[in-house]
Amino acid sequence: MSLVTQSHLRFFEGVLHAADWLTTRLKPSNVAPHLKTGERGEEDAFFHLRRQGYVVVARRFRSALCRGDIDLIAWDRDTLCFLEVKTRSSRKVASAESSVDGDKRRTLRRLARVYLRQIDPAPATRFDILSLYYSRQNAPEFELFRGAFDWY
Predict the structure, then answer these.
(1) Are residues 54 and 121 in the same domain?
(2) pTM of the model
(3) Hey, which end of the chain has fewer CB within 10 Å, N or C?
């Protein structure tokens, strides 16, 4: 990624964080704190993946055909990745990625099939989990699990 592109990305990320901060100050929401943490995580995950060279093509993909959503859909070179983002404020209880259980995997697979119906021919695909951990002093820690699970 070029220096100019990195600068633009950092600028855009800063503007977005500032707008989020201003919005919460002007119009406090009734959103639960853990949901706010999740939204922040998805936003930070987007920028992290862009820095890693991913091309994000969808955020919070939903379908009327099945419940749930896919947090991010992105190209990693020639592979279409369906990403589940898990955000935690600590590692004390359990790892973030461990919360992607069998039911969530089935939901992600169903939604991925719906998404892939739009693409012909179907590309190489994989399911990734991106775990984020926030601590008070440090920048978020990212752990990307490529190919975290398969179609079956």
Answers:
(1) yes
(2) 0.80
(3) C
Total domains present in the chain: 2
Judge if 50 and 88 occupy the same domain.
Answer: yes
pLDDT greater than 90 at residue 37:
no
**Could you tell me if 130 and 140 are in contact, meaning their C-beta atoms sit under 8 angstroms apart?**
no
Both 104 and 54 in a single domain?
yes
Model pLDDT for residues 40-62, shown as the tens digit of each residue: 889 999 999 999 999 999 999 99
> 77 vs 97, which has greater pLDDT?
77
Show the domain range for 16: 1-30
Distance CA 149, CA 152 (A): 8
My answer on whether 64 and 99 are in the same domain is: yes
Both 69 and 90 in one domain: the answer is: yes
Residue 117 to residue 16: CA distance in whole angstroms: 32
Q: Are 105 and 145 in contact (CB under 8 A)?
A: no
Q: Please report the pLDDT score of residue 13 as a whole number.
A: 77
Give the separation between CA 23 and CA 20, rounded to whole angstroms: 5
